[in-house]
Amino acid sequence: MALNLGAIGKKTAPIEFNYDEDMVILYALGIGSGTEELDYVYEKNLKVFPTFSSILCRPALVSLMMEANVNRSAVLHGEQEVTIYKAIPAKGKVFSSGVLSSVYDKGDMGAVLNMDIETSDEQNQLILKSKVVIVDRSAGNFGGDRGPKSPKYDPPHGSNPDFCGKHVVSRDQSALYRLSGDKNPLHIDPDFAKTKGFDQPILHGLCSFGFACRAILESVCENDPEKLKSLSVRFMGVVYPRDTLITKGWEIIKGTYNMQTMTQDGRLVLGNIRATIK
């Protein structure tokens, strides 16, 4: 299946997305929150996790992938980034539009697609920007540019972290998270997971993105989502039910943290994490 390289640079028309408080609460539960973080799971004074952005931008992302003729059965999610410009409302209507910014040829590894999506409210005020990087493993060797190297946000060598957040992934975490829209059977069906080389269903990558968000909000933002300006991650490894996710952060300059998330047995699952706070 050949990519449609003619889609590069073409902005999609705004796509409407309606959501309510129940969807916001369900997302929070899906990334492991609960009554210990009451403001995220109770409609009274409801707060919205910044990584709910991945739900809001999904319609535009799907549109971009369809326009580019991406082979969805061969897709790996590489990176995700959100930059917040105003607090995400607890309910309402938003509009997202996106552009396929670039496609790079990584040979036998596939093609890397970089997508930028903007999400605005009904008054056309920008709420957030999302950057999504995916790999279509079936689309490499098309003769294109290999592209630049990504910036590295490694922890400083030999330094102790400024914070460390630990969260246990429940047995049913994927069953909850999938109700926010990503119903890939890889995350729920043991037989399907085995056909993909896994002993059991694995956690959604964007669910672990939410866990990393919870870690920095709890550790340096006083659990106030409006203090987080941006968060970017690279998906590095697989998370299983009952894993413990250990997220460590180092303040590189004031308000800027390099982070990584590992499991209890030392598997790196999120790397190259960069967070900025107000």
Name the features.
278 residues; alpha+beta; Thiol Ester Dehydrase, Chain A; 6 helices
List the helices and strands and how they pair.
Elements: E1 15-19, H1 21-30, H2 53-56, H3 58-67, E2 75-84, E3 92-105, E4 111-120, E5 126-136, E6 163-168, H4 173-177, H5 190-195, H6 205-220, E7 228-235, E8 244-253, E9 256-263, E10 268-277
Describe the structure.
With 278 residues, the chain is α+β, with helices and mostly antiparallel strands. The chain is 18% helix and 33% strand. It has helices at 21-30, 53-56, 58-67, 173-177, 190-195, 205-220; strands at 15-19, 75-84, 92-105, 111-120, 126-136, 163-168, 228-235, 244-253, 256-263, 268-277. A ten-stranded antiparallel beta sheet has the order 1-3-4-5-2-7-10-9-8-6.
Q: How many β-strands, per DSSP?
A: 10
Number of helices: 6
**CATH class descriptor name of the largest domain:** Alpha Beta
Sequence stretches where pLDDT stays below 50 over 5 or more residues: none
Overall structural domain count? 2
Distance between the termini: 44 Å
CATH architectural arrangement of the largest domain: Roll
Order of helices and strands: EHHHEEEEEHHHEEEE
In CATH terms, the superfamily of the largest domain is: Hotdog Thioesterase
C-alpha geometry: globular
What is the residue-averaged pLDDT? 97
Widest sheet, order of strands: 1-3-4-5-2-7-10-9-8-6
The fraction of residues in strands falls at 25-35%
Q: What can be said about the biggest beta sheet?
A: 10 strands, antiparallel
Radius of gyration: 18 Å
CATH topology call of the largest domain: Thiol Ester Dehydrase, Chain A
Bin the helical content: 10-25%
